[in-house]
């Protein structure tokens, strides 16, 4: 402590300063409505309400009496307070407000050249949303308040309606913590921060401690985000998802989603009974169809018979099959079912896979930084690690932690750990066990997300020189090591081929073409016309932004491809939305620099394979499936990893402390900040099936926390 007294004192003073600033911001800036409304003259309109009163002195808004209108107010109106009874069923209401003032003698709406008073969302269980600030001119004459929308649950109980109400003081602990965290990040990554002078090679203990702490914080944030979307988690306790709690267990699982969401769980049950197809029998009309993969014909037959069929499963020879990778079932669902008799909660599997990915990704990045580069500072490592794990698409997988996301997340986790074990084996005198572990992880990707097998091509730049160029393969030791590299692939391939043959009579048929989905996969094929719109959406489409939190919205999509395009909501291409990838146009010059300085081509080869693999996977996804936001996770990691290595190369050629090196760090900090901000905002965009859709009244609290001035 004596030797580090100055450092400890500096850290303590910095932490206290950050907390003090966050406290002042929360108290004064984020509660600005409290101070601005303190001098208002509150006017109650309760006595002017023409609504039926209930026995508990509440006013009822009904479907036939949902308009509140007041005339001849002749007063200034700064805000409206709609005090809804919190004891009624929670819901989000859309309220339309109109008024006349000194600038408008009649009610006004949007026209071709103007925008009227926008509708406002009010949650009956969010106190902050019940206060609506108005921007009027002079005295308000008439005021009209209407509850609009077709999905309103009437009657609505209203306790009070006031004008110019005093906004309550609200110290939001979550917002305070977030503010303190953002200030801490800004302080840690400021241009003159000590982390840019601390090389991880020279100070391994300190750098590893900081890296471990950073990863721990990331895992906490990722876990918190997943559990926020409680409607998709599938676990319940006394206080969490309490409506699905069994009243006995400390934690119990429950089914979320429809029948389609239980595919993996149903396959586990079938496997426990010794069969590979799902137990549910397809309807007879489906078995009698000449082409069961024609969705239009299926829908017509379903209407005629009234018998439903399972959607998005493989149908073959009179049975339903699961065409998604089988490894998640063997890893999670089957053991869980055999032990508990219950369905494994898919969201927990996604969280486990994402945490494993973050840990493996961080370890792999650390391996490259410490053993292939000498000048990587702790600051540079963290500046690249954060977007690598936060901008590669796993946040979106956590947003929708369904069985669609699980094989992608698990495939990414196996990939990074496989690469890490390979890298560790390359530096070991006895690498056999590391090669076995690495190749086993890489091979298991085929049973999760086959597209990600393209990362196995990294074996060529990693092992070509020692085993082919130096002919180590032809020595007894080298042959054993090479067998450890190849063996797991052969074993896993044999298992998957046997699994495929037992189901479909083919060693290489995974069943994707038998999918009962929105198009006929048996006839989809490959069409070059699909590539242009898909590559534009995946790479080049600019984000579509608004002025309202979370500022992002689904990007528009138009195409000249005169055929069926499979498309879900996407939010911009990675090259347009992740500025950290703007390093890629300089890749050729950076690679030439590396090649001119090294006799080996390992790092250059790794970068080339990553870029090549990313393009191949994006094209394959577009042709085989379509354009979906979760597919960004298939290839984004490859481009981000390539950028990491490119920046490492540039940094290696710059003298620490020079103007050029400082400029690089400032530019990189800006690019990373925008990239991470985009990825974070994407987490809160309202979408069908997510928290904002199922619990819109609770999502309103998030909006009010961010838009504190409304």
Question: Mean pLDDT, as a whole number?
Answer: 93
- Helical fraction: 40-55%
Beta-strand residue fraction: 5-15%
Q: Give the termini distance in whole angstroms.
A: 48 Å
The major beta sheet can be summarized as:
6 strands, antiparallel
Silhouette = globular
Count up the helices.
Answer: 23
Q: Please state the CA-atom Rg, rounded to the nearest Å.
A: 29 Å
User: Count of DSSP E strands?
Assistant: 16
Low-confidence stretches: none
* Structural class estimated from helices and strands: alpha+beta
Summarize the structure.
The protein has 710 residues and is an alpha+beta fold.
Features:
six-stranded antiparallel sheet; globular; 710 residues; 48% helix; four-stranded antiparallel sheet
Describe the 3D structure.
- The protein is an alpha+beta fold.
- The strands form 5 sheets. Strands 1, 2, 3, 5, 8 and 10 form a 6-stranded antiparallel beta sheet that branches. It has a 4-stranded antiparallel beta sheet with strand order 4-9-6-7. A two-stranded antiparallel sheet has the order 11-12.
- It starts with a helix and ends with a helix.
- The mean pLDDT is 93.
- It is built from 23 helices and 16 strands.
């Amino acid at each position: 402590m004596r030797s580090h007294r100055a450092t400890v004192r500096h850290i303590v003073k910095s932490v206290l300063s950050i907390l003090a600033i966050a406290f002042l911001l929360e108290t004064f800036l984020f509660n600005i409505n409290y101070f601005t409304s303190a001098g208002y003259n509150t006017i109650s309109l309760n006595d002017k309400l023409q609504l039926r009163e209930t026995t508990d002195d509440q006013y009822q808004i009904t479907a036939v009496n949902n308009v509140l209108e007041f005339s001849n107010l002749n007063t200034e109106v700064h805000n409206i307070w709609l005090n809804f009874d919190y004891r009624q069923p929670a819901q989000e209401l859309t309220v339309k407000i109109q008024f006349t003032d000194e600038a408008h003698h009649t009610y006004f709406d949007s026209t071709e050249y103007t925008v009227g008073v926008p509708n406002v969302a009010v949650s009956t269980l969010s106190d902050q949303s019940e206060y609506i600030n108005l921007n009027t001119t002079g005295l308000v004459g008439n005021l009209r308040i209407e509850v609009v929308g077709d999905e309103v649950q009437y009657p609505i109980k209203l306790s009070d309606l006031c004008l110019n109400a005093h906004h309550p003081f609200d110290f939001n602990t979550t917002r305070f913590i977030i503010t303190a965290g953002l200030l801490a990040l800004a302080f840690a990554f400021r241009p003159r921060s000590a982390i840019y002078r601390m090389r991880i090679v020279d100070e391994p203990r300190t750098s590893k401690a900081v890296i471990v702490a950073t990863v721990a914080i990331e895992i906490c944030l990722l876990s918190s985000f997943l559990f926020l979307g409680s409607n998709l988690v599938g676990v319940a306790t006394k206080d969490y998802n309490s409506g699905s709690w069994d009243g006995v267990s400390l934690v119990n699982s429950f089914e979320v989603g429809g029948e389609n969401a239980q595919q993996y769980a149903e396959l586990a049950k079938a496997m426990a009974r010794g069969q590979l197809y799902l137990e549910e029998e397809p309807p007879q009309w489906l078995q009698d169809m000449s082409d069961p993969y024609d969705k239009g014909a299926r829908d017509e037959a379903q209407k005629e018979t009234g018998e439903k069929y399972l959607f998005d499963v493989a149908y073959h020879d009179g049975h339903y099959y699961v065409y998604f990778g089988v490894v998640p079932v063997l890893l999670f669902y089957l053991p869980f079912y055999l032990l508990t008799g219950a369905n494994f909660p898919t969201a927990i599997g996604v969280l486990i896979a994402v945490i494993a990915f973050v840990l493996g990704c961080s370890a792999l990045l650390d391996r490259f930084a410490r053993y292939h580069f000498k000048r990587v500072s702790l600051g540079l490592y963290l500046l690249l690690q954060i977007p690598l794990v936060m901008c590669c698409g796993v946040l979106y997988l956590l947003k929708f932690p369904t069985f669609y996301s699980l094989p992608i997340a698990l495939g990414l986790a196996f990939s990074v750990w496989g690469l890490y074990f390979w890298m560790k084996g390359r530096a070991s005198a006895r690498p056999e066990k590391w090669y076995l572990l690495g190749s086993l992880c890489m091979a298991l990707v085929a049973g999760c997300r086959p597209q990600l097998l393209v990362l196995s091509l990294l074996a060529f730049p990693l092992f070509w020189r020692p085993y082919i160029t130096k002919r180590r393969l032809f020595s007894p030791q080298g042959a054993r090591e090479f067998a450890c590299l190849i063996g797991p692939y052969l074993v896993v391939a044999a298992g998957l081929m046997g699994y495929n043959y037992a189901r479909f009579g083919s060693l290489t048929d995974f069943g994707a073409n038998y999918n009962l989905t929105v198009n006929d996969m048996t006839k989809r094929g490959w069409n070059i016309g699909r590539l242009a719109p898909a590559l534009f959406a995946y790479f080049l489409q600019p984000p579509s932004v608004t002025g309202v939190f979370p500022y992002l919205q689904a990007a528009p999509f138009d195409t000249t491809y005169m055929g069926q395009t499979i498309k879900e909501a996407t939010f911009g291409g990675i090259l347009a939305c992740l500025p950290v990838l703007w390093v890629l146009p300089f890749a050729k010059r950076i690679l030439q620099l590396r090649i001119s300085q090294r006799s080996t081509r390992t790092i250059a080869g790794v970068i080339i394979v990553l870029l090549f693999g990313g393009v191949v996977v994006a094209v394959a996804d577009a042709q085989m499936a379509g354009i979906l936001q979760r597919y960004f996770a298939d290839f984004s990691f490859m481009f981000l990893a390539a950028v990491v290595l490119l920046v490492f190369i540039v940094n290696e050629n710059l003298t620490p402390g020079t103007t050029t090196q400082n400029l690089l760090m400032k530019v990189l900090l800006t690019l990373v900040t925008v990239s991470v901000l985009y990825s974070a905002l994407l987490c809160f965009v309202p979408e069908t099936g997510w928290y904002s859709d199922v619990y819109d009244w609770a999502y309103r609290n998030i909006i009010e926390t961010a838009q504190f001035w409304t």
